[in-house]
Write a structure and sequence with these properties.
- The complex is a heterodimer of chains A (779) and B (100).
- Chain A is an all-alpha fold.
- Chain A folds into 4 domains: 386 residues, no CATH class; 31 residues; 148 residues, Four Helix Bundle (Hemerythrin (Met), subunit A), CATH 1.20.120; 59 residues, no CATH class.
- In chain A, strand 1 and strand 2 form a beta hairpin.
- In chain A, helix 1 runs antiparallel to helix 3, helix 4 runs antiparallel to helix 20 and helix 5 runs antiparallel to helix 6.
- Chain A starts with a helix and ends with a helix.
- The model of chain A has no long low-confidence stretch (mean pLDDT 84).
- Chain B has one domain.
- Helix content of chain B is 77%, strand content 0%.
- Chain B contains 3 helices and no strands.
- In chain B, helix 1 runs antiparallel to helix 2 and helix 2 packs antiparallel against helix 3.
- Classes of the chains: A mainly alpha (779), B mainly alpha (100).
- At the A-B interface, helix 26, helix 27 and helix 28 of A face helix 1, helix 2 and helix 3 of B.
- Chain B: This is Na(+)/H(+) antiporter subunit F1.
- Chain B: One of its GO terms (cellular component) is plasma membrane.
- Chain B: InterPro entries: MrpF/PhaF-like.
- Chain B: GO terms for molecular function: sodium:proton antiporter activity.
Amino acid sequence: MIYAVFAPLIITLLIPLLSKWKERVHTGWFILPVPILIFIYFVQFVGENFTPHSESYSWIPSLNISIDFYLDGLSLLFVLLISGIGSLVVLYSIYYLHKSEQLKQFYIYLYIFMFSMLGVVLSDNVFVLYSFWEFTSLSSFLLIGYWHYRERSRYGALKSMLITVFGGLSLFGGLITLSVITETTSIQAMIEQKDLIVNHSLFPLILVFILLGAFTKSAQFPFHIWLPDAMEAPTPVSAYLHSATMVKAGIFLVARFSPILGGEPSFFIIVSLFGIVTLFWASFMAVRQTDLKGILAFSTVSQLGMIMAMLGFGTDVAIFAAVFHILNHATFKGSLFMIAGIVDHETGTRDVRKLGGLMTFMPMSATLALFGVFSMAGVPLPFFNGFYSKELFFESAIDLPGFSGAFVEFLQQAIPYIAVIGSIFTFVYSMYLFFSTFRGKYKEHELKTKPHEAPLGMLISPSILVLGVILIGLFPNMVNESFLAHAATAVFGDGFHAHEVKFWHGWESPALRMSLIVVGVGTILAITRKKWTSVYTVFPRRLSFNELYNYIVDSIEKGSTKITETYMTGSIRHYVSYILGSILIITGAILFITNGVTIEFDDLAPITIPEILVGLTMAIAAIASIFTNNRLSLIIIVGVVGYGLSVLFVIYRAPDLALTQLIVETVTVALFLLCFKHLPELKNLPSHPGVKSINFLISVGFGVLVTLIGISSHSSKLFSPISEYFIEESVPLGGGHNVVNVILVDMRGLDTLFEITVLGIAALAIYALIKLRHDKEAK
Amino acid sequence: MEHELSPLLETVVIICIVGISISIFILLYRVLKGPTNPDRAVALDTIGINLMALAGLLAIFLVTTQFNDVILLIGILLFIGTIAIAKFLEKGVIIDRDHN
């Protein structure tokens, strides 16, 4: 199984090589066998006696992360969709993309996507699942931005990236929480601990995190906004990612975690509510669109909402209907996208307002579209598979699980009505999509090229998909026992009973009545569409979720710029006050909290008059230096402090320090004098009195803090000093009477080495700064 | 090595040290007040000379020869420092460039 998953990734390594001959043979031909082989491999598992398979490969054993593949009915449904539609999409893209395009990028991205999608649906380890999940986001980002020189493509790619990665990170949080609670990383092992998870106090958090991940990926309300903008991708990508596979990853996730999270009132409320609202809102908005792919995008969102709602219902009919509709939707939506691509390819536009009367020019495409569209609308004829799943949907919407609670009861009342209204709009936009493209008047002046039928190769893939539509429509129970029932069992649990799909339920069936209402009202609305489209102007565009998204992205950018600008002023004065202020506050607070200040005067030496006088001199000079505004007098006054310090060294019997201090002091004075000529006059920068007092507070506070720390550290001698050792061993070990110098070059010689290095670097740097002035010389 | 200081010498040295400390303190007034930079420079120079005296007295008081280096060093550094300041006050630079 691992070879099947990794095959697309391995072949991507060869694609750059294969694309060398793209002038002669379209690169797609070379790699087309890969998904077909994967499809054939997985098709072998289909059968009534199917039992789950699992395989395990070690990856990071220390973190309990291994590449576990678990193939149950649900995974099987998805891998067949991914590889099957993947093959068709590759075939279609061979005819769709011209050889002059960047084929190697396209196929590499597409196959990385296929690889990661296979990984998502097969992974049993949550962290591996998450890795593949982010791979799908990344490759989808690359594919949407495939025509990267277009502004809209980049916008769409960025938007989808932001939203899906946001959801992905939230999913990551949910998965981590889950694995911490259950102490396992395997989903199947988690299912066995369902009671533990459900009763855990973190359960609501897990639910929200995982559902957020699923909703963003599956474009549920209100995160659906990225999907219409993702239509800037090449049409094969839209057909593959944004109808059949990636957007169903969220559906897959909810289905996969249903055995853990499902059966709870909160799960029912959130998932069905968001699903049904998505169904209604997206189908309502789809009628407004004028772009073929825009209609299809909103339609996808709406259908995903429908599947999500059914997963939320959680009854066995609903789960079966959901699984059934996943398959149905993939067939008809894939074919519709491909036909939209054909129309675009052959007429040069996807704008519905410019199209019309294409039936006579493109009879084949029109026929294929007819099947796809009528299946999508759920027209009650026995060769449209969409009808069956829609009727099952109605059936499950009436028969909702019996949770108690006021809101749940309200929801149970409302769901059937919303479902019907949403389906009416679905019917309307489906009709609109078909009739305004293929019927009506042919608008010759609007089109750049004369439309003609697509090449045969382009029609193969949609034909196969439409064949699937018809076959499932004619024989709805064909794949039930062997295939769909296993998928539904994986979601629902062992108690699932396979459902018999029938075309005719009799007049008494409420679901049929609902379908008839949909068709009846839908037809009326579709015919009178022009008269009521003005309702869309009631909602101004600036109240849309797109505007909200743009506003959020904009204001995050502006807000962070503003915040950064307020504190990153470019003034070193401010930065120094931040540094000292934060040291003051943090260290002070810690000193205060931990009672770190200890003051003892036990072992102090007596103070003599010379020490007092010298100290006083230094203090006065230091304070006076603040108020000087002549630079030369400033350096002289600071010199007093330096000389005072050397006197203190002499008094405290440190001749070496005194020597060094004197030299350094003098050199510093000389250096200051050296650069004085180039410095501007010292002047008091005008500053706000508030700022000044804050600076005053910080400096005084900092001084007090350091003083306190000094006194405390003197007062609390925890260990006896090691200086006795140095004094004793200076002569026998170091061979020198000068203890300071023995320490510097013998006992702690390494420090001296690096201080010499510091001086050397400083000298070199000064030399370089003075000598190497390319910029100035160039000017 | 350990020589006891005679009580008289000790008293004299302490008086001298205190006197020089007071002198340094008073010189600080001239450094701070000025009124001109040459005044400050001369005061700093004098502080340095006082430092030499202080170091010498301390060496007597502590009965050590360790500070003799310090005294000599202060002398030469003071000279250099004062020359530098003086040259700066005179010319504005302390190292002349070659004019070739």
